[in-house]
Amino acid sequence: MDPTLPDTPSVPTDQGTVENGVRTFRLTASEFEQKIANFPIKTVRVWGYNNSTPGPTLTAREGEPIQLVLTNNLPVPTTIHPHGLHQPNEFDGVPAISQPNPVAPGATFTYGPLPLNIRDHSPTTRTPRAPYRNSADWTG
């Protein structure tokens, strides 16, 4: 039986690519215009990932190794801190603590590969036999 992919309206779903048995997600942190209201139409400048805020929903199968490749197109250093993963401390993404050197503007950093051992912050983000769902809950 195939798992059901999560439905996250208004937010892109990213299944990544599989390279050498590792599911890779490429995230680009940048500033862009985003519509925040339909009537009247209103747009604002925001920071986000892959031209979306919140960022994309990342999906993978439980037990599958993943890696997150972050390219920083923001004017300041940044990190990502994935929730729901049990990653080694050096990939935890907490600036000045577990990641002493945040990703500089224009630079790229790879987190992982990481084992996909699910540790949900909420029981509503996972159902039996469903792929991992992360609401792209990052700090930056």
Descriptive report:
There is one protein chain. This protein has one domain (13-134): Cupredoxins -  blue copper proteins (Immunoglobulin-like, Sandwich), CATH 2.60.40. The protein has strands at residues 13-14, 17-19, 22-38, 41-49, 57-60, 66-72, 108-114, 132-134. The chain is mostly beta strands.
Give a quick precis of the structure:
With 140 residues, the protein is an all-beta fold.
What distinguishing features does this structure have?
mainly beta; Immunoglobulin-like; five-stranded mixed sheet; globular; 140 residues; three-stranded mixed sheet
CATH fold assignment = Immunoglobulin-like
Q: Strand fraction band? A: 35-45%
Number of strands: 8
Q: Over the alpha carbons, how many angstroms does the gyration radius reach?
A: 15 Å
Q: What is the overall number of helices?
A: 0
In CATH terms, what is the architecture? Sandwich
Helix and strand composition category: mainly beta
Task: State the end-to-end CA separation.
Answer: 38 Å
Which bin fits the share of residues in helices? under 10%
CATH superfamily: Cupredoxins -  blue copper proteins
SSE topology:
Blueprint: E1 13-14, E2 17-19, E3 22-38, E4 41-49, E5 57-60, E6 66-72, E7 108-114, E8 132-134
Parallel strand pairs: 1-5, 3-6
Antiparallel strand pairs: 2-3, 3-4, 5-8, 6-7
